[in-house]
Design brief:
alpha+beta, Immunoglobulin-like, five-stranded antiparallel β-sheet, 33 strands, extended, disordered N terminus, oxidoreductase activity, acting on single donors with incorporation of molecular oxygen, incorporation of two atoms of oxygen, metal ion binding
C-alpha cells in the first residue's frame, strides 16, 4: 500500500530549514520560529472576515442603491457589532443600518466549520454624477474598530441608463431579489394596457373582499383593513396593510403605523412570500399586495387610533419618492363587563388559556424551599402575573419568567412560565393551595376561571440549635454579669491635678471632613467638564453637517465653477445650494418635491410668494442648463446664475417664520 504524500511545508519554513545547520542552538531557534509561524495563521483566522459591496455598482443621480457589509467570526469568538458607514458629501444616507444575523457552515475534508456574524445595509442616493469612493465601513469587535475595504460606485446622469422593471419593494436592507414581478407586463406595457379588455368581466382570481367603490388614488395607494372595529382591553385586533397599484412602482422608506396605545406583534415575517391578488376599485382592476399584518392588543379603553402607515413610492405616472399614507384605523375599546367579573381578574387578560404546574421536591426539612413552576398556554394576551395563594408559614419569592410567543394561524399564542421559590417555615404536611387564573374569553363572551392544584409537601421538623454552651452555663454567666456591673470602671482619684484633654487624631475635625468631601466633588467637577466638552463637540459636528453650512459649501463650489467657465457644474452647485438653503430655512427637503409643486409647498410654510417664485425660477434655470447639450462659456451666464442663487439664499437666510 502506497503511503500518501506529505503536505509540503510552507515556503517560509522550508527556507528557514535550509538556512540553519545541525547545531543544537540552531535547531532550537528554528523550532521556535516554526511554532510562531504556525500559530500566526490561527490568530489571523480568529479575527472577523469583513466584506463590503455596493448593489448595484452603477446608479443614476437620485436613484437609491444599497451598501452591504458582512462580518463573520468562528463559532465561540466574540460577535461583531455597531457597524458604521461614512459617505462623501455628494452622497446621502436615506436609511440604515438595517442589521441582521448571518451563519455560514463549510465542510472541508470532513471537518465542519461554522461562522457566525452580522450583516448591515444602508440605502444611499447621490446628488450629482461621478465616480465616488465610499470610505471603508467599520465594525466593532473585542473593543476595536475593524475596517472593510473601500467601495467604488459610479453615478451617471439621471435618465442615462436604460430602464428595467424595478422590484416590487425596496425596503431597508436592499431590494427583495427573486420575486416574480406582478406590477407590469411584457413589452413595457402597463397593467392598464394589459387589462383594458378585461374591465367588463371579472378576473378569475379576483378578490371581492378587497374591492372598493371608489379609488383614493388613480395609480397607487395604501390601505389599512382591521378585522374588527370594536374590542375589549386586551383582545386581539388584526390590522392588514395593503398596497394597491396599477403600474410599475417602487416602495421605499416604509414607516409602520405607530399604534401607541397597543401592544403589537407582527403576523408575517417576510412580505416577499405573499402573492399579489386582483380586485376592482372604482371600476378599475388593481393588483393588491399585503405588505404588513399586525396583531394589536389594546392597552386601555376609549377611542384608540392605530395611526397611518407611510411609504415613499416612485412610479412613471406619479414621480419620484411621492409620500403615500394609509387610512387611520379607529378601534372602539371598552372594558369587559362588570357583571359576573370574578375576584382577582386583571384587566387585559383576554384569550383562551390553560394552566399546568409542577412542584419539586415534595419532601423537605423545615425552613427549606420548593420550586413551583406554573405554565400558562393558549392564544391571546398572555397574563403578565399570577395570583398565588398566601397563608401563614409560606413565603413566595418573585417569580422568574420565561415565554415563547409566536403567531399561530393568524393569532398570537404560545406559553409563559412562572418559576416561584417557596420557603416553608411550618412542619408536617403543608398544603400549597391552588392557583387560579380568571380571564375573559372573547369567543364565548364570558369570564372563565382556570385553576390548578399545587398539592402538599411533607416537611420534616428540625430542632433549633443553641447558640453556645448549656442553658445553665448561660444563666451563670448572666448572673455574674449582673453581680458586678461596674467591674470595668477605673479607680477613684486620690489627689487633685490639672485637666489633660484626650489626644485627638491627626485628621480629626475640619481636615477629616474636607478629605471626606473631596472625592465626590472631584468626580462631579470632572463629570461636568466631560459633559461640557461632549456638548461642544456635538454642537461643532452638528454645525458642520447643517443645511446652512452645506448650502455655503455648494455656493463656493458654484463660484469656483463660474470662474472656470463651467456652466453645467455651476448650475449643479447652485441647485444644491438652493435646496440646502430651503431645508435650512423651512425644514422642507425640497429635492423630493416636484418642481411645479415647490412654490405651493413653500407658501404653505409661510414663505412669501415672491421669494417662492424666485427660488422656483432659479431651480428651473439650473434644470434647463443641466439638460442642454453644452454650456455657453464666456457669455456671463454662469456669473449671472451665481448672483441669482446668492440673492435667493440671502433672502431665505433672512426670512423668519411668522
Amino acid at each position: 500500500m502506497t503511503r500518501p504524500p506529505l503536505s509540503p511545508a510552507p515556503p517560509a519554513l522550508a527556507a528557514l530549514v535550509a538556512l540553519v545547520g545541525h547545531r543544537p542552538a540552531q535547531r532550537a531557534a528554528a523550532l521556535l520560529l516554526a511554532l510562531l509561524a504556525l500559530l500566526a495563521p490561527l490568530h489571523a483566522r480568529a479575527e472577523p472576515q469583513i466584506s463590503a459591496r455596493a448593489i448595484p455598482t452603477e446608479a443614476e443621480v437620485g436613484e437609491p442603491f444599497t451598501v452591504e457589509v458582512k462580518a463573520l467570526v468562528e463559532r465561540g469568538a466574540g460577535m461583531p457589532s455597531h457597524p458604521e458607514l461614512r459617505v462623501p458629501p455628494e452622497l446621502s444616507i436615506l436609511s440604515g443600518p438595517s442589521i441582521g444575523t448571518q451563519m455560514q457552515t463549510q465542510i472541508v475534508n470532513g471537518a465542519v466549520s461554522t461562522q457566525l456574524g452580522i450583516s448591515a445595509s444602508w440605502q444611499i442616493v447621490a446628488d450629482k454624477p461621478g465616480r465616488y469612493t465610499i470610505p471603508a465601513p467599520t465594525i466593532s469587535w473585542n473593543g476595536r474598530r475593524l475596517p472593510a475595504r473601500p467601495i467604488q460606485i459610479r453615478i451617471v446622469p439621471e435618465g442615462s441608463r436604460p430602464r428595467r422593471p424595478s422590484n416590487p419593494f425596496l425596503l431597508p436592507g436592499g431590494p427583495l431579489h427573486g420575486l416574480p414581478w406582478p406590477f407590469g407586463g411584457p413589452g413595457g406595457r402597463t397593467l392598464d394596457d394589459l387589462l383594458a379588455d378585461e374591465l367588463e368581466e371579472a378576473a378569475p382570481d379576483e378578490t371581492p373582499e378587497l374591492a372598493m367603490p371608489r379609488e383614493p388614488d388613480p395609480v397607487v395607494f395604501l390601505r389599512a383593513i382591521p378585522d374588527k372595529t370594536a374590542a375589549v382591553v386586551g383582545e386581539q385586533v388584526t390590522v392588514s396593510f395593503y398596497l394597491y397599484f396599477r403600474e410599475n412602482a417602487e416602495l421605499t422608506e416604509p414607516r409602520a403605523a405607530p399604534a401607541a396605545d397597543f401592544l403589537r406583534h407582527a403576523l408575517i415575517e417576510d412580505p416577499r412570500l405573499v402573492q399579489a391578488v386582483h380586485t376592482r376599485v372604482g371600476g378599475h382592476l388593481y393588483n393588491v399586495r399585503l405588505i404588513e399584518k399586525l396583531a394589536l392588543f389594546p392597552l386601555k379603553a376609549g377611542e384608540l387610533h392605530t395611526g397611518r402607515m407611510q411609504a415613499r413610492i416612485t412610479g412613471r405616472r406619479i414621480g419620484k419618492r411621492v409620500l403615500r399614507e394609509s387610512n387611520d384605523v379607529v378601534i372602539q375599546v371598552t372594558e369587559p363587563p362588570l357583571a359576573g367579573r370574578p375576584s382577582g381578574y386583571v384587566l387585559g387578560d383576554v384569550g383562551r388559556f390553560t394552566l399546568k404546574a409542577t412542584v419539586q421536591p415534595r419532601r423537605i426539612d423545615q425552613g427549606g424551599s420548593v420550586v413551583v413552576t406554573v405554565q400558562v398556554e393558549g392564544t391571546g394576551n398572555l397574563p403578565q402575573s399570577l395570583r398565588v395563594p398566601e397563608r401563614t408559614g409560606l413565603e413566595w419569592l418573585d417569580p422568574e419568567k420565561r415565554e415563547s410567543i409566536a403567531p399561530r394561524d393568524g393569532e398570537i399564542g404560545g406559553s409563559r412560565s412562572f418559576g416561584y421559590v417557596v420557603r416553608i417555615e411550618e412542619s408536617g404536611t403543608v398544603d400549597l393551595g391552588k392557583i387560579e387564573l380568571p380571564y375573559w374569553d372573547p369567543a364565548q363572551k364570558r369570564y372563565v376561571v382556570e385553576g390548578v392544584e399545587l398539592g402538599s409537601v411533607a416537611v420534616t421538623p428540625v430542632a433549633p440549635p443553641f447558640a453556645s454552651g448549656s442553658p445553665a452555663g448561660a444563666r451563670d454567666a448572666a448572673g455574674d454579669a449582673r453581680a458586678e456591673p461596674l467591674a470595668a470602671m477605673p479607680g477613684l482619684r486620690a489627689s487633685l491635678g490639672a485637666y489633660s484633654p484626650p489626644a485627638t487624631l491627626p485628621l480629626d475635625g475640619a481636615p477629616f471632613w474636607c478629605l471626606l468631601a473631596a472625592p465626590p466633588l472631584l468626580v462631579t467637577l470632572f463629570g461636568a467638564g466631560d459633559r461640557l466638552v461632549r456638548r461642544a463637540r456635538e454642537r461643532r459636528a452638528a454645525g458642520e453637517a447643517s443645511p446652512a453650512r452645506l448650502a455655503a459649501v455648494a455656493q463656493r463650489e458654484a463660484e469656483e465653477a463660474a470662474a472656470q467657465g463651467d456652466l453645467k457644474a455651476t448650475a449643479a452647485a447652485i441647485e444644491r445650494a438652493v435646496h440646502r438653503a430651503i431645508e435650512s430655512a423651512t425644514g422642507l427637503r425640497s429635492r423630493g418635491v416636484l418642481l411645479e409643486a415647490l412654490p405651493g409647498e413653500l407658501e404653505q410654510r409661510g414663505v412669501p410668494g415672491a421669494l417662492s417664485a424666485r427660488a422656483h425660477e432659479v431651480l428651473a434655470a439650473c434644470e434647463a442648463i443641466r439638460f442642454e447639450p453644452a454650456g455657453r462659456p464666456g457669455d456671463g451666464a454662469a456669473a449671472a446664475l451665481v448672483e441669482q442663487g446668492r440673492a435667493v439664499m440671502t433672502e431665505l437666510a433672512r426670512w423668519k417664520p411668522t
